[in-house]
């Protein structure tokens, strides 16, 4: 009879979570910016906080980074409490803030080397590391340029490269592509995919639904400091929306008056100031029903459901107010 190895007989232990939050609260006076949120982030995961501006995403990131103390609750980063062990936690974190804070007076390569010195790293390590990261960020030909000569997308890539100088295990990205044009966003997404493939744990905040769907293995939907839902993008869409959405525009003044005439079409209807949304598994069939009722929208569009629809369903409002 063949012997069964011990590793096969014993249950496999799951790796410890990189980040554990339990009932975390952050209060400013009478205002709860973060109101009792709980979540775990696993090693190598790309984890997102999706929500509108003011939802508590950036506040959560600052607490994880140990630069803002929580009011109550438990928070552990790689087994350490960031309030008690801030320097040790930050030594293993890379941070990409919402606004680039590069040194405009320094050249591109010098920004990386000077930042690395804050961690006490030797020049013998920093010089080749800076060159490696400039290549990663597609900025090798800009190494000797002044930062203020870079485009917005280049500055964002440089900020990410700088955050990697200490070879972090976890990278925090706060609204990483805000203000970038579509091409720059896609280049940045590609760089982040490469980091994930290399095993870096990514934590990002965003109010862009397409960004969350592209980058996140799992996410929490946050509104007014509370978690509204948690799961993978595809699972959240399946749970809270239909396969397709029919968007109709009858004109701003007519949308609310036409909406009652659309009753019974699809599974659900949302009337927004600029359009009416009909949620249905078959958007074209829903559009045919609209036409059969003698209704003629100015424009119509059938699209797949997105995280925007999930947020609308959970909160009754759009991600971008």
UniProtKB/TrEMBL annotation:
Belongs to the ABC transporter superfamily. Its main location: membrane. InterPro entries: AAA+_ATPase (IPR003593), ABC_transporter-like_ATP-bd (IPR003439), ABC_transporter-like_CS (IPR017871), ABC_transporter_ATP-binding (IPR050763), P-loop_NTPase (IPR027417). It is found in: Cell membrane. This is ATP-binding cassette domain-containing protein. It comes from Arthrobacter sulfonylureivorans. Keywords: Antibiotic resistance, ATP-binding, Nucleotide-binding, Transport. Residues 19-249 form the ABC transporter domain. The keyword Glycoprotein does not apply. It is a peripheral membrane protein. GO terms for molecular function: ATP binding. SUPFAM superfamilies: P-loop containing nucleoside triphosphate hydrolases (SSF52540). Pfam families: ABC_tran.
């Amino acid at each position: 009879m063949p012997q069964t190895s011990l590793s096969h007989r014993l249950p496999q232990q799951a790796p410890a979570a990189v980040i554990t939050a339990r009932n975390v609260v952050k209060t400013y006076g009478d205002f709860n910016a973060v109101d009792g949120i709980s979540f775990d982030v696993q090693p190598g995961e790309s984890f997102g906080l999706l929500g509108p501006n003011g939802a508590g995403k950036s506040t959560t990131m600052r607490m994880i980074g140990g630069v803002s103390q929580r009011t109550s609750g438990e928070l552990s980063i790689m087994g350490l409490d960031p309030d008690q062990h801030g320097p040790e936690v930050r030594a293993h974190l890379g941070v990409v803030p919402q606004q680039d804070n590069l040194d405009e007076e320094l050249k591109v390569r010098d920004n990386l080397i000077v930042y690395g010195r804050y961690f006490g790293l030797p020049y013998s390590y920093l010089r080749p590391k800076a060159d490696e990261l400039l290549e990663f960020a597609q900025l090798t030909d800009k190494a000797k340029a002044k930062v203020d000569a870079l485009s917005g997308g280049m500055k964002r890539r440089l900020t990410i490269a700088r955050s990697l100088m200490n070879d972090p295990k976890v990278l925090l990205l706060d609204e990483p592509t805000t203000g970038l044009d579509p091409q720059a966003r896609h280049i940045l997404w590609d760089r982040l995919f490469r980091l994930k493939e290399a095993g870096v744990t990514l934590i990002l905040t965003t109010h862009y639904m397409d960004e969350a769907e592209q980058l996140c293995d799992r996410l929490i939907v946050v509104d007014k400091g509370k978690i509204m839902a948690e799961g993978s993008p595809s699972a959240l869409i399946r749970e809270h929306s239909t396969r397709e959405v029919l968007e109709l525009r009858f004109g701003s003044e007519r949308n609310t008056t036409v909406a009652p005439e659309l009753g019974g079409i699809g599974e659900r209807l949302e009337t927004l100031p600029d359009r009416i949304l009909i949620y249905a598994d078959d958007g074209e069939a829903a559009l045919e029903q609209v036409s059969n009722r003698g209704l003629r929208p100015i424009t119509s569009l059938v699209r797949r459901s997105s995280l925007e629809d999930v947020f609308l369903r959970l909160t009754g409002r759009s991600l971008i107010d």
